[in-house]
Amino acid sequence: MITTAKRLDIIEEYYFSSKLREVRQLASEGKPIINMGIGSPDLQPSQAVIDAMVLAMQDENAHQYQSYQGLPELRQGMADFYQNNYQVALNPANEILPLMGSKEGIMHISLAFLNEGDQVLIPNPGYPTYTSVTNLVGAVPVYYDLKETNNWEPDFEALEKLDLSKVKIMWIGYPHMPTGARGSLQLFEKLVAFAKKHNILLVNDNPYSFVLNDNPMSLLQVEGAKDVALELNSLSKTFNMAGWRVGMVLGNAACIDAVLKVKSNMDSGMFYGIQKGAIEALKSDKAWFESMNAIYKKRRIRTEQLAEKLGCKVYKEGVGLFVWAKLPDGISSAENFIDEILYDKSIFITPGTIFGSNGEGYIRFALCVKEEKVQEAIDRFA
User: What CATH number is given to the structural domain containing 299?
Assistant: First the structure.
């Protein structure tokens, strides 16, 4: 039998990859599953985006290999989007790199900057991919606590007490996933100063800033951020294009060039039609965001009602695509709690534990279920 690489010994299959197999199996057995676990938007991109992609199919260059850096007009569209929505000026020639979803950017950045044994600061709770990719490249995860008592923001006194001599990258993400904590420009300023002080590459994962959030922010708004920072962003949630796989990494030109060296050896460019659709999406005006948030607001109200029906305490300050809720007193296991609901009521909710030890005692609901389905879930507890 051919043995697998040793790097697989320290990672596990992504939680949703394995758990959704179980959920699909239950559905195939006739269970009326309501999936509130995964943040895959069920809404459609705008018709203009779809039309742009369809029209692109007839272009004589549509089916050829594309540039590793994406179409110049796509990079310009991303630059315009950042200027118009975050008031951040970026050079589309060397400070922006389109990605096939921002998730691949986590791997590309890690491969570009981490050597075996380097350390990486990872939020707890936080996106599990930060840990798995760190392990895959042979680096060492170092977790920093985020707690509700500190509004899910880093404790800088605790950070300064760590041995930071081997830390190369620090992952952050505001609005925060899974809690929905907003963050602030003041927090970003502290993080940039911290990164400069300790010569750390600071990377902000920013796909949720337009969902139920009246104050979209970018780490790159902070003066001097480009000296030490990159930002990942995505069209998946903002424009309902999760399956299209369109993201971007932005910031320090030298760092962007390093990421391009990795990326250019791993794919042969993004499909032309997808790029054309993305260009159109990036032109969307305020009315688009308002229309999406009107839907998500109604869903959030219903989802909070469901959480409270379960005896949970909702983190009301949260924004983004999820509702974060604390379990009732006396419940010791988030995973047991959600499994009981899955098997008894056919409702899938995400346990907070998959995001780190500080997620124990919490559960997460995705707002990717129609309002009437959320009401159906509520009714199952009548």
Answer: 3.90.1150.10
